[in-house]
Specification:
CATH topology: Jelly Rolls
CATH superfamily: Galactose-binding lectin
Order of helices and strands: EEEEEHHEEEEEEEEE
CATH architecture: Sandwich
Largest sheet: 6 strands, antiparallel
Distance between the termini: 51 Å
Shape: elongated
Helix content: under 10%
Number of helices: 2
CATH class: Mainly Beta
Strand content: 35-45%
Length: 223
């Protein structure tokens, strides 16, 4: 059986070694500029190396773990707590981004939005605040709602508002403030990015504090 060999880009029946033939046909191709995507977290690749967690003995009991799936692309980070009934009804954690920001400066300044790929298994919608913390201590964030359907949620930078920074891990002694409001009054500037802050608690109604709260995150990207 003789195999047919095809030479590209014109898809003709010739061997690449037979270079001494003349073609009169032309072809064209597109050169597309890369989108300035900066991956802040990817459940497929990342571990907990750059995470800051709340101290269990100060906060409500919680469970944060990476869930692995037989299909790798379906891996996700699971954040769960039985309830928010606590003196401070807030469960927050951070991912430090100094290394990413340093090596991605050229791409960072071209980004205009946060894209969060996430979902929940709660029967109702799950509110979660996504914030970007800058080097001056300011945090710019927005509360979004997750459903049981995994999807990409786009948050344009112009929709971000000043929110409180959560001090993690909570300082000792425990009477020190859990929330910090920076004295800086600068506009959001993505090139000064230091961390991403994820919070379960903001805008959740008090009557829902006793219900389980759960967030599943696949990926967080700036684009």
């Amino acid at each position: 059986m003789i195999k047919t060999q095809i030479t590209f880009p014109e898809k003709i029946s010739e061997h690449p070694a037979n270079w001494d033939f003349v073609s009169t046909q032309t072809y064209s191709t597109k050169i597309v500029e890369n989108e300035p995507n900066v991956v802040l977290y990817d459940a497929i690749k990342d571990n907990f190396k750059n995470f800051l967690w709340p101290r269990q003995w100060y906060a409500m009991q919680y469970k944060i773990e990476k869930k692995l799936h037989k299909v790798t692309s379906k891996d996700y980070l699971s954040i769960y707590t039985d309830s928010l009934i606590k003196e401070l009804p807030d469960l927050s954690f951070k991912i430090l981004l100094n290394d990413i920001a340093k090596r991605s400066q050229n791409s960072l300044v071209k980004t205009t939005s946060i894209v969060l790929t996430a979902f929940t298994r709660a029967k109702k919608r799950q509110k979660v605040q996504v914030g970007l913390q800058l080097k001056n201590g300011q945090v710019f964030g927005k509360v979004i709602e997750l459903t049981s359907n995994k999807k990409d949620i786009i948050i344009p930078f112009h929709e971000l508002e000043n929110v409180s920074q959560v001090v993690l891990p909570k300082p000792f002694p425990p009477f020190q403030s859990y929330f910090l409001n920076s004295l800086a009054n600068s506009k959001f500037d993505v090139k000064d990015l230091e961390a991403i802050q994820i919070s379960i608690g903001p805008e959740i109604k008090k009557e829902n504090y006793n219900k389980p709260q759960q967030v599943f995150i696949n990926k967080i990207v700036l684009q």
